[in-house]
Amino acid sequence: RVKRGWVWNQFFVVEEYTGTEPLYVGKVSMAPACSHPLPLSDEGDGSIKYTISGEGAGTIFLIDEITGDIHATERLDREQKTFYTLRAQARDRQTDQLLEPESEFIIKVQDINDSEPRFLEGPYIGSVAELSPIGTSVMQVMASDADDPTYGSSARVVYSVLEGEQHFTVDSKTGVIRTAVADLDRETQDRYEVVIRATDMAGQLGGLSGSTTVTIVVTDVNDNPPRFPQKMYQFSIVETAPVGTAIGRVKAEDSDVGENTDMTYQVKDEEGVEMFKVTTDSNTQEAVITVQKPLDYESKKVHTVVVEALNKFVDPRFVDLGTFRDQTIVRVSVLDVDEPPEFQPPSNLMEVQEDAHVGSVVGVVTALDPDTVNHPVRYAIDRSTDAERMFDIDANTGAIVTGKVLDRETAGWHNITVLAMEADNHSQVSRTSLPIRILDVNDNPPELATPYEAAVCEDAKPGQLIQTISVVDRDEPQSGHRFYFTLASEATNNHHFSLLDIKDNTAAVHTQRMGFNRQEQDVYLLPILVVDSGPPALSSTGTLTIRVCGCDSNGAIQSCNSTAYVVSATLSPGALIALLVCILILVVLVLLILTLKRHHKSHMTSEDDEDMRDNVIKYNDEGGGEQDTEAYDMSALRSLYDFSEIKGGDGGGGPGEGGPSGNPASELHTLPQWVQSPDLDFSVFRDYICKKVEQADEDLSVPPYDSFQTYAFEGSDSPVPSLSSINTWSSSSEQDFSYLGGWGPRFRQLAALY
Fold first, then answer.
1. Domain 447-559 part of CATH 2.60.40.60
2. Which end of the chain is more exposed for a tag (fewer CB within 10 A), N or C?
3. What is the pLDDT of residues 31-47, one digit of tens each?
4. Centroid of chain to Cα 260
């Protein structure tokens, strides 16, 4: 039988179909296979049943089982899905058997221009330098169209400028934005909002379009020079401001931004360069004006400084726009202050001879008040720098004179500080250091460098060198030292030794005879006269001690005394130990004797301590009366003995009677004598004495004996007779002291005591 096969036509369906009826897509059918080039349809008797499966089968796409017609029942969108893949089956309606194997076919969604171009990478921000030439590329924008670029012109996009076309253009095909003018000025407008439109259908009528806003920032270039807001600035500063003090700040304005505003400042005039310095504050871009040299109101009251500002980074493309610098004038007014005196000229070295007399003028210092008032100046020396007061200064003239005798050898330099102050305001004081050099005069004779001692062998030969001597001189002549050596006059008859001046400030002593005998003379004293070169020439005599010594055959000295013996080191150890033992025994005996003597002395001292003696202490001055309590110790007057107790307490024994302690009358015959009146009460004095005794007994530091003190001596010129009874040899007569009552109120207490 004739074999059949599938007959396929191209299936297309238009997107976005808006009709009410299903959209016819196409037809599937079977035809017999033969050599005829054209397919033949089935017989149409309904014996074949057509079915489909795959994407959208039964939902989007429906097929007529008998005719094989396919319809689309839903609205399709090519931008979402461009084609659908389905499979077709042909079955025998009676047996439901496949007449042919399944066949796959595709339904394509046909595009229409239903999508506008879109800018997917927005928002767009670009930048361009100001003053860029026309046609400078700023940036590129690109729009995307979802329509099929292979079908028609739906996806062909062109670009145009909707807003901002007076400053920028856009390439219609590439979307590159370029400048349309050459005078973009950031200082006038620093950003632009440009609207770019993209249209499909190649811009033809009926095409869809989309737009975006592009922000274009105009970047800065250094096209503006610095400018000072003012042509003159004024500042003031005191004349005592130290170097480096900031006077003020000025700033030049620059319309540019960033590093294009970085500036440097400089002083342009010669006077300003000398007196002032300008630096740039990197943070604020201000010019800081500082003092470079000390100011002086009296010399110049106003300074004019020309300050110039210039850009640090200059763009060579804009040099033709003009000079990128500006100048301004700064007036600096110097304010007057009260300044201390200034030394004129500054202190220099002064010199004075060391033999200058006290009061000799060393030099004169001068200081002047720099102020307009010109106050008088007074001078003084800072004594902390001249503690020994070697120099004085005239307070009015500033003349420095010697205050003491100078000695260069003690102090060759003096550094004193001189003060200069205003006469009416000592707080305004200035100081200067003044070095004074003491010039040398020849006032010290030369002396032998050391107390020379030499030795000569007994068998010495004539001309043998014994000693080379040198001298020292504390002076320092400008031409240097030159010393002359000779034997002193008392050694002119010397025939033993000779002295040779070597002419280099040293001399040599040689033997002059053959051999010496130390038994005859073991020591020779050789006086040497040394003279300096002056002026005036000074001299001194030194003695060289020469000992005659015994020497061995090689000339080595063995002994230098006439009773020569050598304590050789050949003593045996036993002998040395015996010698040390003897010395130790002698030391022990000496210590024992000293200990015994000290013990005996302390024993005698203890016996002397038991000897209670009375000490009479005489004061050769006259008291000032009972009101005078500061001339002497009043408590001593109150320490009176109760003679009844001293005499043994027998109730009134006479001065010549004996007592229990031997012969107290003999010990008391020189004491003042009086008769104890029965109406006088001595209990006050007795209690006082007892209290003092108790205090003395408790105090271990007081001596172990009593002391009797009397204050009864009267001056030699007193018009009244003496009260003392020390010279009264009578031991039994009574004395009448009633006349004391007539001496006045100042002696009332004394009269009551007697």
1. yes
2. N
3. 654 433 333 345 667 78
4. 40
CATH 2.60.40.60 residue ranges of the chain are 10-110, 118-219, 232-335, 342-439, 447-559
Dihedral angle, C-alpha 481, 486, 489, 495, nearest 10 °: 160
CATH number corresponding to 232-335: 2.60.40.60
Residues of the chain under the 50 pLDDT cut: 1-2, 33-41, 562-570, 612-613, 639-675, 711-713, 729-732
**pTM value surpassing 0.70:** no
- For residues 599-618, b (16+ Cβ closer than 10 Å) or e, as one string? eeeeeeeeeeeeeeeeeeee
| Best CA proximity match to 617, nearest among 481, 710, 478, 689 | 710
Q: pLDDT at position 246, please?
A: 95
Q: Is residue 87 within 8 Å of 63, Cβ to Cβ?
A: no
Q: Which two tokens stand for residue 76?
A: 């399709």
CA distance from start to end of the chain: 195
Give all strands of the β-sheet with 61-63 in edge-to-edge order: 23-27, 69-72, 61-63
Phi, psi of 40 (to 5 degrees): -115, 140
Edge-first strand order for the sheet with 506-511 is 447-448, 465-472, 506-511, 497-501
**Span 10-110 CATH architecture:** Sandwich (2.60)
